[in-house]
Design a protein that fits this description.
Number of strands: 12
Helix content: 25-40%
Low-confidence stretches: 100-113, 188-192
Distance between the termini: 51 Å
Shape: elongated
Oligomer: single chain
Mean pLDDT: 83
Number of helices: 11
Length: 337
Protein backbone atom coordinates (compact mmCIF):
# COMPACT_ATOMS: atom_id res chain seq x y z
CA UNK A 1 0.00 0.00 0.00
CA UNK A 2 1.36 3.43 -0.97
CA UNK A 3 0.61 6.73 0.74
CA UNK A 4 0.70 10.21 -0.75
CA UNK A 5 0.24 13.33 1.38
CA UNK A 6 -1.19 16.03 -0.86
CA UNK A 7 -0.92 19.78 -0.23
CA UNK A 8 -3.56 20.97 2.25
CA UNK A 9 -6.68 22.67 1.01
CA UNK A 10 -6.95 25.07 3.96
CA UNK A 11 -4.68 26.00 6.85
CA UNK A 12 -1.35 24.22 6.14
CA UNK A 13 -0.60 24.02 9.85
CA UNK A 14 -3.48 21.69 10.61
CA UNK A 15 -5.09 20.31 7.42
CA UNK A 16 -3.97 17.56 5.08
CA UNK A 17 -5.20 15.12 2.47
CA UNK A 18 -3.72 11.63 2.36
CA UNK A 19 -4.06 9.30 -0.61
CA UNK A 20 -3.89 5.61 0.39
CA UNK A 21 -3.37 3.01 -2.32
CA UNK A 22 -4.88 -0.47 -1.73
CA UNK A 23 -3.94 -2.70 -4.69
CA UNK A 24 -6.37 -5.59 -4.09
CA UNK A 25 -9.83 -4.32 -5.02
CA UNK A 26 -11.58 -7.31 -3.43
CA UNK A 27 -9.94 -6.63 -0.08
CA UNK A 28 -10.67 -2.92 -0.44
CA UNK A 29 -14.37 -3.73 -0.77
CA UNK A 30 -14.20 -5.70 2.49
CA UNK A 31 -12.24 -2.86 4.10
CA UNK A 32 -14.92 -0.32 3.19
CA UNK A 33 -17.73 -2.60 4.35
CA UNK A 34 -21.30 -2.86 3.15
CA UNK A 35 -22.46 0.56 1.95
CA UNK A 36 -19.06 1.89 3.17
CA UNK A 37 -20.20 1.54 6.79
CA UNK A 38 -16.66 0.81 8.00
CA UNK A 39 -15.43 4.05 6.48
CA UNK A 40 -18.40 5.92 7.95
CA UNK A 41 -17.52 4.59 11.42
CA UNK A 42 -13.95 5.86 11.13
CA UNK A 43 -15.12 9.20 9.69
CA UNK A 44 -17.51 9.73 12.59
CA UNK A 45 -15.03 8.84 15.33
CA UNK A 46 -12.05 10.77 13.93
CA UNK A 47 -13.81 13.72 12.29
CA UNK A 48 -12.30 13.07 8.85
CA UNK A 49 -13.72 12.60 5.37
CA UNK A 50 -12.82 9.46 3.40
CA UNK A 51 -13.45 9.37 -0.35
CA UNK A 52 -13.00 6.32 -2.54
CA UNK A 53 -11.37 6.82 -5.94
CA UNK A 54 -10.84 3.45 -7.63
CA UNK A 55 -8.20 1.63 -5.61
CA UNK A 56 -7.39 4.80 -3.67
CA UNK A 57 -8.88 6.19 -0.49
CA UNK A 58 -8.53 9.94 0.03
CA UNK A 59 -8.55 10.97 3.70
CA UNK A 60 -9.17 14.66 4.39
CA UNK A 61 -9.03 16.45 7.73
CA UNK A 62 -6.75 17.59 10.52
CA UNK A 63 -3.17 16.30 10.28
CA UNK A 64 -3.35 14.17 13.42
CA UNK A 65 -6.75 12.74 12.49
CA UNK A 66 -5.74 11.80 8.94
CA UNK A 67 -2.56 10.17 10.24
CA UNK A 68 -4.61 8.12 12.71
CA UNK A 69 -7.10 7.19 9.97
CA UNK A 70 -4.20 6.01 7.81
CA UNK A 71 -2.88 3.85 10.65
CA UNK A 72 -6.29 2.28 11.26
CA UNK A 73 -7.05 1.64 7.59
CA UNK A 74 -3.59 0.14 7.04
CA UNK A 75 -3.94 -2.14 10.07
CA UNK A 76 -7.37 -3.35 8.94
CA UNK A 77 -6.17 -3.95 5.37
CA UNK A 78 -3.20 -5.94 6.71
CA UNK A 79 -5.67 -8.02 8.70
CA UNK A 80 -7.64 -8.74 5.51
CA UNK A 81 -4.42 -9.68 3.67
CA UNK A 82 -3.81 -12.27 6.40
CA UNK A 83 -7.16 -13.86 5.56
CA UNK A 84 -9.05 -12.56 8.57
CA UNK A 85 -12.37 -10.71 8.53
CA UNK A 86 -12.90 -7.10 9.61
CA UNK A 87 -15.85 -6.56 11.93
CA UNK A 88 -17.17 -3.59 13.89
CA UNK A 89 -15.34 -4.98 16.92
CA UNK A 90 -12.04 -4.84 15.01
CA UNK A 91 -12.66 -1.23 14.00
CA UNK A 92 -13.61 -0.36 17.57
CA UNK A 93 -10.41 -2.00 18.86
CA UNK A 94 -8.20 -0.04 16.45
CA UNK A 95 -9.96 3.22 17.32
CA UNK A 96 -9.54 2.62 21.05
CA UNK A 97 -6.01 1.27 21.26
CA UNK A 98 -3.94 3.68 19.19
CA UNK A 99 -0.25 3.18 18.55
CA UNK A 100 1.45 0.34 20.47
CA UNK A 101 3.60 1.59 23.34
CA UNK A 102 7.27 0.67 22.97
CA UNK A 103 7.65 -0.04 26.68
CA UNK A 104 4.60 -2.27 27.10
CA UNK A 105 3.82 -3.40 23.56
CA UNK A 106 4.39 -6.77 21.92
CA UNK A 107 8.14 -6.28 21.48
CA UNK A 108 8.86 -5.45 25.13
CA UNK A 109 11.72 -7.44 26.60
CA UNK A 110 9.61 -9.20 29.22
CA UNK A 111 6.75 -10.00 26.84
CA UNK A 112 5.46 -13.56 26.90
CA UNK A 113 6.62 -15.87 24.14
CA UNK A 114 3.09 -16.42 22.78
CA UNK A 115 2.75 -12.69 22.10
CA UNK A 116 6.15 -12.11 20.47
CA UNK A 117 4.59 -12.20 17.00
CA UNK A 118 3.01 -8.81 17.69
CA UNK A 119 -0.67 -9.72 18.16
CA UNK A 120 -2.26 -9.92 21.61
CA UNK A 121 -4.93 -12.58 21.20
CA UNK A 122 -6.36 -15.70 22.81
CA UNK A 123 -7.10 -18.75 20.66
CA UNK A 124 -9.99 -21.00 21.70
CA UNK A 125 -11.80 -23.82 19.90
CA UNK A 126 -14.65 -21.64 18.62
CA UNK A 127 -13.14 -18.20 18.17
CA UNK A 128 -10.12 -15.94 18.37
CA UNK A 129 -10.44 -13.38 21.18
CA UNK A 130 -8.64 -10.04 20.85
CA UNK A 131 -8.55 -7.30 23.50
CA UNK A 132 -10.17 -4.06 22.37
CA UNK A 133 -8.66 -1.54 24.77
CA UNK A 134 -5.21 -0.92 26.25
CA UNK A 135 -6.47 -2.00 29.69
CA UNK A 136 -7.79 -5.25 28.23
CA UNK A 137 -4.48 -5.85 26.45
CA UNK A 138 -2.51 -5.42 29.69
CA UNK A 139 -5.01 -7.67 31.47
CA UNK A 140 -4.61 -10.48 28.91
CA UNK A 141 -0.83 -10.27 29.19
CA UNK A 142 -1.05 -10.50 32.98
CA UNK A 143 -3.46 -13.46 32.81
CA UNK A 144 -0.67 -15.46 31.18
CA UNK A 145 2.17 -13.92 33.18
CA UNK A 146 0.91 -14.07 36.78
CA UNK A 147 -0.38 -16.98 38.84
CA UNK A 148 -2.82 -14.72 40.69
CA UNK A 149 -4.55 -11.91 38.83
CA UNK A 150 -7.32 -9.45 39.78
CA UNK A 151 -9.60 -7.75 37.24
CA UNK A 152 -11.57 -4.89 38.81
CA UNK A 153 -13.96 -2.53 37.06
CA UNK A 154 -17.51 -1.88 35.87
CA UNK A 155 -19.80 -4.23 33.98
CA UNK A 156 -19.13 -4.84 30.31
CA UNK A 157 -15.35 -4.38 30.37
CA UNK A 158 -14.55 -8.03 29.56
CA UNK A 159 -13.08 -9.01 32.93
CA UNK A 160 -14.73 -12.42 33.18
CA UNK A 161 -14.97 -13.05 29.44
CA UNK A 162 -11.24 -12.64 28.87
CA UNK A 163 -10.40 -14.66 32.00
CA UNK A 164 -12.53 -17.61 30.83
CA UNK A 165 -10.99 -17.32 27.33
CA UNK A 166 -7.50 -17.51 28.85
CA UNK A 167 -8.56 -20.52 30.91
CA UNK A 168 -9.89 -22.35 27.84
CA UNK A 169 -6.67 -21.53 25.95
CA UNK A 170 -4.48 -22.96 28.72
CA UNK A 171 -6.73 -26.00 29.03
CA UNK A 172 -6.68 -26.95 25.34
CA UNK A 173 -2.91 -26.35 25.25
CA UNK A 174 -2.36 -28.73 28.17
CA UNK A 175 -1.06 -26.08 30.60
CA UNK A 176 -3.78 -26.94 33.13
CA UNK A 177 -5.85 -30.08 33.68
CA UNK A 178 -9.09 -28.43 34.79
CA UNK A 179 -11.09 -25.23 34.60
CA UNK A 180 -12.95 -24.20 37.76
CA UNK A 181 -15.39 -21.30 37.56
CA UNK A 182 -17.05 -19.96 40.69
CA UNK A 183 -19.09 -17.03 41.98
CA UNK A 184 -20.91 -16.22 45.21
CA UNK A 185 -24.58 -17.26 45.13
CA UNK A 186 -25.80 -13.82 46.14
CA UNK A 187 -29.07 -12.37 44.83
CA UNK A 188 -28.87 -8.91 43.27
CA UNK A 189 -31.26 -7.02 45.52
CA UNK A 190 -34.13 -9.51 45.16
CA UNK A 191 -35.29 -12.49 47.17
CA UNK A 192 -36.02 -15.31 44.73
CA UNK A 193 -37.25 -17.74 47.36
CA UNK A 194 -36.66 -21.48 47.19
CA UNK A 195 -35.77 -22.81 43.76
CA UNK A 196 -37.04 -26.22 42.60
CA UNK A 197 -34.88 -29.18 41.62
CA UNK A 198 -31.64 -30.75 42.81
CA UNK A 199 -28.53 -28.84 43.89
CA UNK A 200 -27.41 -28.19 40.29
CA UNK A 201 -30.84 -26.81 39.39
CA UNK A 202 -30.76 -24.50 42.40
CA UNK A 203 -27.31 -22.98 41.72
CA UNK A 204 -27.32 -22.89 37.91
CA UNK A 205 -29.26 -19.58 37.68
CA UNK A 206 -26.44 -17.89 39.62
CA UNK A 207 -23.78 -19.52 37.44
CA UNK A 208 -25.43 -18.83 34.04
CA UNK A 209 -23.06 -15.95 33.04
CA UNK A 210 -20.14 -18.38 33.39
CA UNK A 211 -21.89 -20.97 31.22
CA UNK A 212 -22.53 -18.25 28.61
CA UNK A 213 -18.84 -17.31 28.45
CA UNK A 214 -17.73 -20.94 28.32
CA UNK A 215 -20.12 -21.78 25.48
CA UNK A 216 -18.62 -18.96 23.45
CA UNK A 217 -15.23 -20.70 23.41
CA UNK A 218 -15.99 -24.44 23.29
CA UNK A 219 -18.50 -26.48 21.25
CA UNK A 220 -21.62 -27.22 23.29
CA UNK A 221 -21.24 -31.03 23.23
CA UNK A 222 -17.60 -30.80 24.26
CA UNK A 223 -18.48 -28.44 27.12
CA UNK A 224 -21.18 -30.83 28.38
CA UNK A 225 -18.79 -33.79 28.19
CA UNK A 226 -16.02 -31.94 30.04
CA UNK A 227 -18.46 -30.86 32.76
CA UNK A 228 -19.67 -34.45 33.11
CA UNK A 229 -16.05 -35.62 33.45
CA UNK A 230 -15.41 -32.89 36.09
CA UNK A 231 -12.65 -31.41 33.94
CA UNK A 232 -14.72 -28.22 33.93
CA UNK A 233 -16.48 -27.30 37.16
CA UNK A 234 -18.92 -24.46 37.66
CA UNK A 235 -19.83 -24.14 41.31
CA UNK A 236 -20.81 -21.60 44.00
CA UNK A 237 -18.05 -20.15 46.14
CA UNK A 238 -19.29 -22.05 49.20
CA UNK A 239 -18.33 -25.34 47.50
CA UNK A 240 -14.64 -24.37 47.46
CA UNK A 241 -14.03 -24.81 51.19
CA UNK A 242 -11.61 -27.61 52.11
CA UNK A 243 -10.29 -28.12 48.58
CA UNK A 244 -6.79 -27.70 47.17
CA UNK A 245 -7.06 -26.66 43.52
CA UNK A 246 -3.93 -28.03 41.80
CA UNK A 247 -3.16 -27.87 38.06
CA UNK A 248 -6.30 -25.84 37.46
CA UNK A 249 -7.32 -22.49 36.00
CA UNK A 250 -9.65 -21.00 38.62
CA UNK A 251 -11.89 -17.97 38.15
CA UNK A 252 -13.87 -16.26 40.92
CA UNK A 253 -16.45 -13.97 39.34
CA UNK A 254 -18.48 -11.25 41.11
CA UNK A 255 -15.87 -11.26 43.87
CA UNK A 256 -17.25 -8.03 45.35
CA UNK A 257 -20.01 -10.23 46.82
CA UNK A 258 -17.59 -12.50 48.66
CA UNK A 259 -17.13 -11.76 52.35
CA UNK A 260 -13.63 -11.25 53.75
CA UNK A 261 -13.60 -14.79 55.20
CA UNK A 262 -14.79 -16.27 51.89
CA UNK A 263 -12.12 -14.38 49.97
CA UNK A 264 -9.36 -15.60 52.28
CA UNK A 265 -10.72 -19.14 52.04
CA UNK A 266 -10.79 -18.97 48.23
CA UNK A 267 -7.33 -17.43 47.78
CA UNK A 268 -5.77 -20.08 49.98
CA UNK A 269 -7.16 -22.85 47.71
CA UNK A 270 -4.41 -22.07 45.17
CA UNK A 271 -2.45 -25.25 44.53
CA UNK A 272 0.66 -26.30 42.63
CA UNK A 273 0.51 -25.63 38.89
CA UNK A 274 -2.65 -23.54 39.15
CA UNK A 275 -3.62 -20.03 38.14
CA UNK A 276 -6.31 -17.96 39.77
CA UNK A 277 -8.27 -14.94 38.51
CA UNK A 278 -10.51 -12.79 40.70
CA UNK A 279 -12.96 -10.43 38.94
CA UNK A 280 -15.35 -7.93 40.45
CA UNK A 281 -17.09 -4.57 40.32
CA UNK A 282 -16.84 -2.48 43.48
CA UNK A 283 -19.97 -0.51 42.48
CA UNK A 284 -22.23 -3.60 42.53
CA UNK A 285 -21.89 -5.00 46.04
CA UNK A 286 -25.02 -6.97 47.03
CA UNK A 287 -23.87 -8.04 50.50
CA UNK A 288 -26.03 -7.16 53.51
CA UNK A 289 -25.43 -3.73 54.99
CA UNK A 290 -22.44 -3.73 57.33
CA UNK A 291 -20.77 -6.79 55.77
CA UNK A 292 -17.34 -5.95 54.36
CA UNK A 293 -16.53 -6.94 50.77
CA UNK A 294 -13.70 -9.43 50.49
CA UNK A 295 -12.60 -7.83 47.24
CA UNK A 296 -11.99 -4.52 49.00
CA UNK A 297 -9.96 -6.23 51.73
CA UNK A 298 -7.93 -8.23 49.21
CA UNK A 299 -6.98 -5.01 47.37
CA UNK A 300 -5.88 -3.42 50.62
CA UNK A 301 -3.91 -6.38 51.94
CA UNK A 302 -2.34 -7.84 48.78
CA UNK A 303 -1.49 -4.78 46.68
CA UNK A 304 2.19 -4.83 47.66
CA UNK A 305 2.83 -8.47 46.71
CA UNK A 306 4.71 -8.30 43.38
CA UNK A 307 3.61 -11.73 42.15
CA UNK A 308 -0.04 -10.62 42.20
CA UNK A 309 -1.37 -8.51 39.35
CA UNK A 310 -4.13 -5.91 39.87
CA UNK A 311 -5.81 -4.71 36.68
CA UNK A 312 -8.31 -1.84 36.70
CA UNK A 313 -10.96 -0.93 34.14
CA UNK A 314 -13.10 2.19 33.70
CA UNK A 315 -16.17 3.11 31.66
CA UNK A 316 -13.80 3.79 28.73
CA UNK A 317 -13.13 0.02 28.57
CA UNK A 318 -16.79 -0.97 28.22
CA UNK A 319 -17.19 -3.04 25.04
CA UNK A 320 -20.93 -3.65 25.21
CA UNK A 321 -23.44 -1.23 23.67
CA UNK A 322 -22.08 2.37 23.77
CA UNK A 323 -25.01 3.32 26.01
CA UNK A 324 -23.63 1.06 28.76
CA UNK A 325 -20.56 3.30 29.14
CA UNK A 326 -22.79 6.40 29.28
CA UNK A 327 -25.02 4.78 31.91
CA UNK A 328 -22.01 3.83 34.08
CA UNK A 329 -20.61 7.35 33.83
CA UNK A 330 -23.98 8.86 34.82
CA UNK A 331 -24.22 6.69 37.93
CA UNK A 332 -20.59 7.38 38.86
CA UNK A 333 -21.18 11.12 38.54
CA UNK A 334 -24.25 10.93 40.77
CA UNK A 335 -22.53 8.87 43.44
CA UNK A 336 -25.74 7.96 45.29
CA UNK A 337 -25.90 4.34 44.09
Amino acid sequence: MATTVLPPATDPATQSERMLDFPDNRLLIDLCGEYDRNLAEIEQKLGVQILRRGNLLAVLGEDDATAEAERILTALYTRLEAGRAVTRADIDRELRMGQPDSATGPQAGDQLEMFRGGAIEIKTRRKLVEPRTDAQKAYVQNLFKHELCFGIGPAGTGKTYLAVAAGVNMFINGQVDRIILSRPAVEAGEKLGYLPGDMKDKVDPYMQPLYDALNDFLPGKQTAKLIEEKRIEIAPLAFMRGRTLANAFVVLDEAQNATSMQMKMFLTRLGEGSRMVITGDRSQIDLPRGVSSGLHDAERLLATIPQISFNYFTSKDVVRHPLVAAIIEAYEADGSV
